[in-house]
Amino acid sequence: MSADDARDGDSTDDLNAFVTRETVEGDADGPLAGKTVAVKDNISTEGIRTTCGSAMLAEYVPPYDATVVERLREAGATLVGKANMDEFGMGGTTETSAFGPTKNPVDPERVPGGSSGGSAAAVAAGEADLALGSDTGGSVRNPAAFCGVVGIKPTYGLVSRYGLVAYANSLEQIGPLANTVEDAATLLDAIAGPDEHDATTRYDAAEGGAPGATDVPDDVHPADATEYAAAADGDVDGMTVGVPTELVEGADDEVVAVFEDALADLEARGVETVEVSLPSVEHAVQAYYVIAMSEASSNLARFDGVRYGVDGGEGNWNESFAAAREEGFGDEVKRRILLGTYALSAGYHDKYYEKAQDARAWVKRDFDEAFAEADVLATPTMPVLPPKRGESLDDPLSLYLMDANTVPVNLANLPAISVPAGEAEGLPVGMQFVGPAFGEEAIIRAGSAVEE
Ligand code: GLN
């Protein structure tokens, strides 16, 4: 199916969770034997096209597997297809895909969230046991919340990004989606750990690397010393959960009601809740979009019709470059390349990019202070219920604001999980737990308590 066929096609009988359906059996008899996995279509798969939801890459077939795909195979998992997504990960509803929107299995008139909407929909609909997504500013947690499944955004440097087509490298991580916290953690166990192909997975606390789990030796990567699935034991007795007021106030009432019920349940299980404040998050969405668009404008320069992408035809370089990009990219991607290029251009660099980096540092400091008072922080994952398809696409700003609770976590490179906390108006509501760097066990533990 070409991008044009998909755009025009009527797929009401199908959720359109996959861009490409193709089965690859796992090698071994590992911990994921017998499990089916959907892989987001921005994660490279050898011999299987990897489109990033873009017409630009409708015909692109990678010559190698991403590290996470190799690890899936080694763990015995069976790949069942490449999951639909917002084009290059830019969006929160899976409506910017050149292959048409994905539907939310809970209510097909609504969006599944995004950008990993195909991954979450496939798991929620039972078309895959597990899925991989990528999270630059919420793209694993957002669709997990909207589809009523579990999603984990790992600490930056926990999971290799080798083979992930870059959108904004300083922010993104590949993360698991599943029906239960334990299954998501088992998938995390399979993919996490150092990789010689990705220097950001190097870990040495003694050299000033991020602080790891307390009982991990300084030079051992936390993933090599931890079994994440074992932390899904629901034992939260004595845990302190911080609630950042700024990230609850902005959410819709029906979402807050579900969130507060879930907090009360946790208190009944021995959790102490405390209020914390993250004043900097007021600037997080602005800072995130400046940084993400700036990085995107640079990363997407390679799609020039020569190295990658659709052919821009004969003629001079500028014309064929422009033709390839005019044809290959959708509106949201073009908007972001333009804004990112502007933010980085001489004379404006100080005004936008540097300010955004200052805000990013401030967000990090605020989280550090909050973790002096609490083991994990809890917020609603998304401030709203899943919108109907077509409702939000015309207003990019309202879409960006939907990311208020997820993007601060990426700016600070921290781990977070979204777990289903209940329903409002028959639609799923997700609860997010954020942990300190490499504090995956604590958020998995907290998430598994909500699930019970
Ligand atoms: N919605 C955010 C964006 O559009 C997050 C996307 C993501 O995490 N890939 O940038």
UniProtKB/TrEMBL annotation:
UniProt-listed SUPFAM superfamilies: Amidase signature (AS) enzymes
Active site: 40, 115, 139
Any one of the GO BP annotations: translation
Region (Disordered): 91-120
Class of enzymatic activity (EC top level): ligase
Keyword terms of this UniProt record: ATP-binding, Ligase, Nucleotide-binding, Protein biosynthesis, Transferase
Catalytic reactions on record: L-glutamyl-tRNA(Gln) + L-glutamine + ATP + H2O = L-glutaminyl-tRNA(Gln) + L-glutamate + ADP + phosphate + H(+)
Alphabetized InterPro entries for the sequence: Amidase, Amidase_CS, Amidase_dom, AS_sf, GatA
Subunit comment: Heterotrimer of A, B and C subunits.
The protein's role, per its UniProt record: Allows the formation of correctly charged Gln-tRNA(Gln) through the transamidation of misacylated Glu-tRNA(Gln) in organisms which lack glutaminyl-tRNA synthetase. The reaction takes place in the presence of glutamine and ATP through an activated gamma-phospho-Glu-tRNA(Gln).
Identification of the protein by name: Glutamyl-tRNA(Gln) amidotransferase subunit A
Organism: Halobaculum saliterrae
UniProt gene name: gatA
